Amino acid sequence: MDNDKRVTLSRGLFLFTAVVGALYLPLALNYTWPLFGTGVPRWQDDVNTAINGRGYALGDGSVDAVRQQAYAEHRVVLLVHTTLGALALTLAMFQFSARIRERWPAVHRWNGRSYLALMTVSMLTALIFLYVTPPARHFIGPAFETQLRGLAVGTLASAWYALYAIRKRDMVSHRAWMTYSIAFMLTAPLLRFIWIGIQPVIPQHDLLTNIGVGSLILGVVAPGGAAVAFIASRQAPSDEVNTAAPVWRYGAAVALAVLGSLTYTGLTSRLPEPIPHSLVAFHLVPVWISIALALIGVARARARDNFARERQWRWLLWGFAAAPLSASLYSLIVPPDFTAADAIIAGGMDGAAIPITICFAVIVRAAARARAQGRSPLAAAETASAA
């Protein structure tokens, strides 16, 4: 990818984050206000009601029906979490601005530090809230709580590792892991867009079931999107890779994906009523779309004899291909108080991120090592950073 395309991608990431942040910020700031006084408008519920009706937004199977008491009891903790998280996400969009990064590096650094501080407090209060409240009384409740814990820890760990990397002058790792952290932060507004927007498509689901649908989708899309953005926005390293990988390796990756897909489908077919067996599609469809994107990246790199780039896409392909099997195996290591249904759903929500993140880390490490050895120039417009 040439510099013009990288600049375009950087601007695209900035605009995407800006639009998501602009839509989410007022809803997040207002979310807990009604807990402190009667008569305060509930903007998120009002939007949801206007689109999908009051029964879906506030009736049985809604967040309001199962979490209102917990929210009221811990409203201060929730207020701190939602407010600071929304502000952190607003600051995050400016980290994608190459113009700010290059023309005003001090602004970029202080903006990044502010993001890190706000995000840290927001994620810690999220973990406190999850610790002091039980899961939602719904079949997605235990699995969704597990995913929320993982998101909070992953967001914190990736951002603080990014700070460690920049202290070591490892710009590649810094920008990669900040992108990963921001991708996880984006799951909050994106999940809301999904559960509000998907109801007309699958009206038989209640709101909490559609939260489960969104969580299954984002379990693949969040880490996978960060990895794709990193590869697409960097110049491939010029290293010792000078031959294409044999085709059988790609066949093996696809075979692994097929095996994992069949295994996880078999597990979900055992879910008891009223849990819809169609939930498996919201894990597998994003996985196979991601596999297709990785194979397209491989094909384009091979056509240009760019074997270093091919290797990056191949490594990411293995992460996507291993996701369904990882989801199946993850269901075996969940907390002992989980039911079989809890474990299977948790596998779909959380298991996919494990191999994708491992392969992303391998790609980032190789790129950072190549740059440290002088084989890869820093791209003019790379992914976000925040020192």
Automatic annotation (TrEMBL):
Annotated transmembrane regions: 12-33, 76-94, 115-134, 146-166, 178-198, 210-232, 247-267, 279-303, 315-333, 345-368
Name of this protein: Predicted membrane protein
Keywords, comma-separated and alphabetical: Membrane, Transmembrane, Transmembrane helix
The UniProt record lists the keyword DNA-binding: no
The keyword Iron-sulfur is annotated on this UniProt entry: no
One Pfam short name: DUF2306
Domain of life: Bacteria
Stretches assigned to coiled coil: none
